[in-house]
Write a structure and sequence with these properties.
With 262 residues, the chain is α/β, with parallel strands linked by helices. Helices cover 47% and strands 14% of the residues. 51% of the residues are buried.
């Protein structure tokens, strides 16, 4: 288990539901991204930093558009990774990227660069389990947590093999399709969490379609916590860091209200 994984396990042991907000690095500009991070980080157990990429297969319209705007103003994925080095505070940061930028620079070089930028974990949604051993080894060598995704269509055997690789947390995908806000949480959310629970005792966080405090509570009823992305990215883009921080505070408060009375 990585340092991130041990930290999340300790938070869970305190009866805390885990909250990982997502922000697109450099969106809508460098200063706004840094301000947004500072606004949401106090309410987070970790912050997921997305790197812009030209073919974001998993990203829905809000996050894809944010990434495209970042790329158009000249901030590529590796420069966006370096921007994370300017973030301050003790909040743990994990990075979400596609495999192409990692391949371009080399797995070991990318992991070193991530660590130098203050990153403690890695999510690579387009790298299949069967092709991830080398990068997982580099993560271990550099002290980065590996955070795999489990799809709602995965067989029990595959869920077991995927969750076995996790050293940070297990990212349970609530529904098929891309990221984005949704009016209601997918009915598959509880099913994928149950499959992960059957396979592992590592922290299981659910993401994709968790868009407001009520949905966060519904998702965290079965899971250890939630990842919230598109709703925050939209707020940062349209209204700025302060409303994003207010939203993160409301999610944190809703999750904290789930804790059993002492």
């Amino acid at each position: 288990m990585s340092e991130l994984g041990e930290f999340l396990v300790s938070r869970r042991a305190e009866g805390r539901k885990l909250f990982v907000p997502y922000l697109m690095s450099g969106a809508p500009d460098d200063a706004s991204f840094i301000a947004a991070f500072e606004a949401v980080a106090p309410f987070a157990d970790a912050v997921e930093v997305g790197l812009p990429f030209s073919d974001p297969l998993m990203d829905g319209p809000v996050i894809a558009a944010a990434g495209e705007r970042v790329l158009r103003r000249g901030l590529g994925p590796l420069a966006a990774l370096d921007l994370a080095a300017r973030l301050e505070g003790s909040a743990r940061r994990v990075v979400m990227t596609y495999y192409n930028p990692i391949h371009r620079i080399g797995e070991a070089a990318f992991c070193r660069r991530a660590v130098d930028a203050g990153i403690v974990g890695l999510i690579v949604p387009d790298l299949p389990l069967e092709e991830s051993a080398s990068l997982r080894g580099c993560c271990q060598d550099h002290g980065l947590a590996w955070i795999p995704l489990v799809a709602p269509t995965s067989s029990a055997d595959r869920v077991a093999r995927i969750t076995d690789t996790a050293t940070g947390f297990v990212y349970a995908v609530s529904t098929l399709g891309v990221t984005g806000t949704r009016a209601a949480l997918s009915e598959r959310a509880a099913q994928v969490v149950a499959a992960c629970r059957e396979a592992t005792d590592k922290p299981v966080l659910i993401g994709i379609g968790v868009s407001n405090p009520d949905q966060a509570v519904a998702a965290a009823t079965d899971a250890d916590g939630v990842v919230v992305g598109s709703a925050l990215v939209r707020l940062v883009d349209e209204e700025g860091a302060e409303p994003a921080g207010d939203f993160a505070r409301s999610v944190r408060a809703a999750l904290d209200a789930m804790a059993p009375a002492s």
